[in-house]
Amino acid sequence: MKQKITIAVTGGSSGRGRILVAANLSTALTDMGLKVTYLDCDVENALEFHYLNPNWYLEFEVEKRVPEIDPERCSHCGECTALCQFNAIADLGDSVLTFPNRCYSCGACVHFCPSGAISETLQSTGRVRLGYSGTIRVVDGRINIGERHGESVIQAVRQQEADSGATIITAGTSGLNGAVLRNVDHVILVMGATPFGIHEYHRTAEYLKQIKIPFSTVIKNDGIGDQKTAEYCRRLNIPVLMQLPPDLDNTAARPVDNHLPETDRWIMEQFHSLGHQIMTERAS
């Protein structure tokens, strides 16, 4: 059986902490001989390019299904407007307006239209790029400006996941939806040692408990702010994998061509230890 593990790294307001952890964990797992795929599911952000500089070899557009109204067949019954929970259709009496950027492509309006006046057409919702940073395969998704929902782009990114090796997924805590967390084995929450950090941590931790996905913590900016995040983890027996010093973000944020940023011996040893711990627990 092929060895496979999927880890989502999330947390933090700026994104630097989670991308730092995801990028260096990817390097550590690569050094262990694993084939690593790095999936950027933070489709509204581009922070990973502070840490990875992939050579892109392919880019393709992502489309979604949106409603199209046939005015000759529409009876203005209002059924579609009443059905749509996302306000993507508005019946004005003498015409019907659609708002594709609000549409989730559920198809309910097409299915239930009594006049058969609604069909579906394709609309661009974003793009996906594929590349390599050294031997790490990188997949990057971005939604179009004005697009309100990124699920279709996230799904397109997740479809590029390899069937073996390690997959590292990055996403903000506000974007931890079903498309991101599908078949994820473990979530690493990267949180700061600040009052805001513990508030965000508590909200995300409770969500992960409800959906029964194992998670652990990396605390960034350790030594400044307060210790509430660490105390919270100890109180609830949540594993703390690493505690990163406050100056690490600035050091790791300098871009380096075609490979991950250089880190000092201590921090790289920490990430190698983290990689071995994760794979050992996976095998047990």
Task: Tell me what the structure shows.
By secondary structure, the chain is an alpha/beta fold. The protein has two domains: about 5-60 and about 130-284, P-loop containing nucleotide triphosphate hydrolases (Rossmann fold, 3-Layer(aba) Sandwich); about 65-125, Alpha-Beta Plaits, CATH 3.30.70. It is about 30% helix and about 30% strand. The strands form two sheets. It has a nine-stranded mixed sheet with strand order 3-6-7-2-8-1-9-10-11, with helices on both faces. A two-stranded antiparallel sheet has the order 4-5. Strand 4 (about 90) and strand 5 (about 95-100) form a beta hairpin. Helix 1 (about 15-30) packs across helix 9 (about 265-284). It is elongated and about 70 Å long. The two termini are about 15 Å apart.
Shape: elongated
The biggest beta sheet, please? 9 strands, mixed
Individual helix count = 9
Estimate nothing, just give the exact number of structural domains: 2
CATH class of the largest domain: Alpha Beta
Physical arrangement of strands within the biggest beta sheet? 3-6-7-2-8-1-9-10-11
Query: What name does CATH use for the topology of the largest domain?
Result: Rossmann fold
Model regions low in confidence, pLDDT < 50 over at least 5 residues: 250-261
- Rg calc: 22 Å
SSE order, as H and E? EHEEHEEHEEHEHEHEHEHH
Which architecture of the largest domain does the CATH hierarchy give at level 2?
Answer: 3-Layer(aba) Sandwich
Strand segment count: 11
Percent of residues in helices comes to: 25-40%
Q: Let me know the average pLDDT.
A: 83
Q: Roughly how many Å apart are the termini?
A: 15 Å
* Strand portion: 25-35%
